[in-house]
């Protein structure tokens, strides 16, 4: 079975995360054995993005969610490293500003949706409004519980404008999270990532899992599916995400646009210009 089929949350189904193996690594016995496939995916992603950019008939939105240290930043880096910065964007969604709080929860999100020809990555997203907001009672239940339908409608709206949406939930175990926190403490290159909230949020693990399960059940749709990415192994996470993006772009049948000029005439003009240049010499 292909990775995409294995990892997608079929619309209308409910995933129990405790039944998901966060350390799953498919048919690959080790990172070393996955290296070539990963490199191939990255090359393909670069080619496909170039076509998407040239053709300007489709857009791609990649949504990343996951608990602290699940690897959202690492996935962004990996996926975007494959692509030309021209025509791509990454938006990280943090605590809403005072101004953002004065608006509906999608107000700050919509301007970052990709236009035709573009790839956009959301590092956290509008889903925070049914995750952290729900876990910490930042708005009443009557308010957040309405948001799943609102989100589905919003994502439908984007697809009517040519946006293909892929949503990745990066799933790690609490033990793996603790190991990554320890790594951050010891590695000067990672210490800046430590936040006081990290350990406090761990106390809410079960509430987060319940919120993630609802998000996956209510908002995995045919046009904007959720994928649960086993992410204890960073290399498998990168491999799975890059493969799913690659296959999705591939299915768009992207084609570079035909030239808008008469190439024969331009060739004649070119040869004449070369001749004239030589005549001068
Ligand atoms: P980080 O991604 O580690 O930079 O942290 C960003 C923080 O912003 C996380 O703690 C998120 O839970 C929080 N955040 C993002 N969106 C929202 C939101 N809509 N409401 C409240 N907190 C949010
Ligand atoms: Mg953080």
TrEMBL record:
Domain Polyphosphate kinase-2-related stretches: 33-254
Q: Which SUPFAM superfamilies match?
A: P-loop containing nucleoside triphosphate hydrolases
Q: Which reaction does it catalyse?
A: [phosphate](n) + ATP = [phosphate](n+1) + ADP
Keywords annotated in UniProt: ATP synthesis, Kinase, Transferase
Q: Which family does it belong to?
A: Belongs to the polyphosphate kinase 2 (PPK2) family. Class I subfamily.
Q: What is this protein called?
A: PPK2 family polyphosphate:nucleotide phosphotransferase
Q: Lineage in the entry?
A: Bacteria, Pseudomonadati, Pseudomonadota, Alphaproteobacteria, Hyphomicrobiales
